[in-house]
Amino acid sequence: MPGHVAIVGYMGSGKTTVGRLLARNTGRAFVDLDAEVSRRAGVSIPGIFAEHGEERFRDIEREALLEALAREENCVVSCGGGAVLRPENRAALRGTPTVFLREDIDVLYARTRGANRPLRGGSREDFARRYAERLPLYQEVADVEVDADGRSAAAVVEEVERCLSRL
Q1: Annotated binding residue at 59?
Q2: 44 marked ligand binding residue
Q3: 60: pLDDT confidence band, cut at 50, 70 and 90?
Q4: Does 56 carry a binding-site annotation?
Q5: Phi then psi for 119, rounded to 5 degrees?
Q6: Which residues are involved in binding substrate (predicted)?
Q7: Any binding-site annotation on 151?
Q8: How high does pLDDT run on average in the chain?
Q9: Is 13 annotated as a binding residue?
Q10: Is 90 flagged in the annotation as binding?
Q11: Does residue 110 surpass a pLDDT of 90?
Q12: Whole-angstrom distance, CA of residue 86 vs CA of residue 139
């Protein structure tokens, strides 16, 4: 399996859970970009959005992504759901085996209900519209697409490992 691996997908798709398990199974370090952004800012992600706005969040996210992908130690990087919005992030991901976790929009909407996510608010239609806008960007950077719909994290990771071994 290649050195670094990145995982992308919409909020609630299981990127952190799958990423952590994949890292453990393959002996890699694990980097959760959302957690890293929060650590660097010294406040929660909702706090960053409230105090500094989405643009500042995306700046910190870009820095954290580029640093994670530049590490000598092989790692699995769980990207934030919007990391693909910036062209420089997509360019960086193109040089890294990247997995897109697909999930049914209704499952994602239900899974994130009540979660403290700055971009989760709004109607199901707004949620689905944002997903539709990001979908081609996830597909653009993905070397592998895995359908996570209704499957356990272990089953998803098993498929991810199988797909990555073919790259």
Answers
A1: no
A2: no
A3: very high
A4: no
A5: -100, 10
A6: 34, 58, 81, 134
A7: yes
A8: 92
A9: yes
A10: no
A11: no
A12: 14
What percent of the chain stands above pLDDT 70? 94
Q: Is 17 labelled a binding residue?
A: yes
Residue 106 to residue 53: CA distance in whole angstroms? 27
Give the Cα separation of 59 and 136 in Å (integer).
Answer: 22
Q: Is 26 annotated as a binding residue?
A: no
- Give the pLDDT score at 135: 98
Q: What is the DSSP string of 24-69?
A: HHHT-EEEEHHHHHHHHHTS-HHHHHHHH-HHHHHHHHHHHHHHHH
The two structure tokens encoding residue 51: 């105090």
Sort residue 13 into left (φ over 0), alpha (ψ -120 to 50) or beta: alpha
Q: In what order do the strands lie in the sheet containing 75-78? A: 29-32, 75-78, 5-8, 98-102, 144-147
14 labeled part of a ligand binding site: yes
Higher pLDDT among residues 66 and 124, named by residue: 66
Distance, in Å, from the CA atom of 93 to the CA atom of 69, rounded to the nearest integer, reads 8
Tell me if the pTM is above 0.70.
yes
Do the annotations mark residue 81 as ligand-binding?
yes
What domains can you pick out in the chain, each with its CATH number?
Answer: 5-153 (3.40.50.300)
